[in-house]
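Case study 2.
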Amino acid sequence: MNRVIVQYRTRNEAADENQAAIETVFAALAEGDPEGLSYTSMRLEEEEAGTVFVHVAEVRTEDGSNPLAALAEFGEFQTGLPDRTVEPPLARQATVIGSYRPQ
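Prediction:
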């Protein structure tokens, strides 16, 4: 299993455009319903230095392939990202210590 957290800061004037691009990715995920992927994106409060976005992906495919990377809409999102950000995205592997979800 592979877990990745990606964080980056957009220019404030590009934050809504970035959110719309993310929403397009989620619409494609809902339509394709790929197995072996959990994906969450969050927009943090706007700051003077830009708006921070955080993405959390968990890949659980047998062969280790990432269904998100195969999605055309995700590729388009990534292609436009440098034009919207003020700094390169920071991606880090993550290990879950605990998780709580009420039943």
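DSSP finds two helices and four strands in the chain.
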